[in-house]
Structure to design on (324 residues):
């Protein structure tokens, strides 16, 4: 997400560039994670035949300490090293809290390039040189390629399987992630879970930005780990939004380098931005040619038949506050 030109391109932060233009007319916009916007219905699997990812060579690293925490506790945490949280309201959502944007990028940027970034292949893993070139081509750095990440368990397992099959040399941080996924049991067939990330505050990421990123990414985590919710979002996208609204959302997401050909990615990001991203620096209805009244109308319609749980309670609270 992004409040200045250095945050210009990625997910929630990427939106700030879009939002900045909109702000002059009607407000402003977000990303990279930002809200930097991740799928219980995983993204389309690579079209190559995959074998299960190989286990780590001995000795296996000691298990990661994992702390169960609510949203407020995670938000208040100041990471001095990579910290792993299990989200209390949905234990199938894992949160990686990094001390630096660089550490986050070293672990997750290559995965982003495979799973959702426009202009990169969906069926093969980039080498270090190719990933560096793809990042530089868009005027980014390891740190600014994404400000937050979100992926389902199945897509993560697919990444490692494909990397093994292609004999791609992965970095130590990526091997560290492999060890965590093994610990969680996410390489097992049918594993369900959502992994999201964020970093501590710095000169770019304020406390408000961090809060926006976390809430946005948690909604992705729910999408990945609750099949009923994912199906509900898909149905809402198809039946409650107009053709023009879907078109403008696709254009908005394309402006932030999301692969607009991935339909599930489109409606997953729709729910995160439209329903759960409230900071006007990161997203405004004007970013998708929508009035504030229409956004509230869609939020109320979305709330009406949502699956019960923490995310429904969160949206209901937001709408009560908006009505005050």
């Amino acid at each position: 997400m992004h409040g200045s030109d250095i945050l210009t391109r990625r997910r929630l932060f990427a939106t700030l560039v879009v939002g900045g233009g909109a702000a002059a007319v009607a407000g402003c916009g977000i990303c990279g994670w930002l809200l930097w916007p991740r799928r219980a219905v995983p993204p389309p699997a690579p079209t190559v035949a995959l074998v299960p990812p190989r286990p780590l060579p001995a000795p296996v690293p000691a298990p990661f300490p994992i702390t169960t925490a609510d949203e407020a506790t995670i938000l208040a945490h100041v990471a001095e090293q990579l910290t792993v949280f299990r989200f209390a309201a949905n234990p199938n959502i894992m949160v990686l809290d990094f001390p630096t944007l660089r550490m986050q990028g070293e672990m997750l940027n290559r995965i982003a390039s495979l799973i959702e970034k426009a202009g990169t292949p969906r069926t093969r893993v980039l080498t270090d040189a190719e990933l560096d070139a793809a990042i530089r081509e868009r005027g980014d750095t390891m740190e600014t390629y994404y400000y937050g990440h979100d992926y389902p368990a199945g897509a993560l397992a697919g990444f490692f399987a494909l990397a093994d099959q292609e004999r791609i040399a992965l970095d130590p941080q990526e091997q560290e992630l492999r060890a965590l996924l093994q610990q969680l049991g996410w390489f097992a067939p049918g594993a369900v879970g959502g992994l999201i990330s964020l970093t501590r505050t710095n000169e770019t990421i304020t406390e408000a930005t961090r809060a926006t990123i976390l809430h946005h990414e948690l909604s992705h985590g729910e999408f990945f780990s609750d099949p009923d919710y994912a199906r509900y979002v898909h149905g809402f996208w198809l039946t409650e939004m107009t053709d023009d609204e879907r078109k403008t959302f696709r254009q908005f997401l394309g402006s932030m380098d999301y692969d607009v050909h991935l339909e599930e990615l489109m409606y997953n990001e729709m729910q995160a931005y439209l329903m759960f991203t409230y900071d006007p620096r990161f997203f405004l209805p004007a970013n998708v040619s929508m009035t504030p009244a229409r956004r509230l109308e869609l939020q109320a319609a979305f709330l009406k038949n949502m699956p019960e749980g923490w995310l429904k309670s969160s949206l209901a609270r937001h709408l009560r506050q908006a009505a005050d």
Notes: Residues 10 and 32 are 3 Å apart (CA to CA). The chain has twelve helices and six strands. The chain has one domain: 5-323. Strands lie at 31-32, 66-69, 83-87, 93-98, 150-152, 194-199.
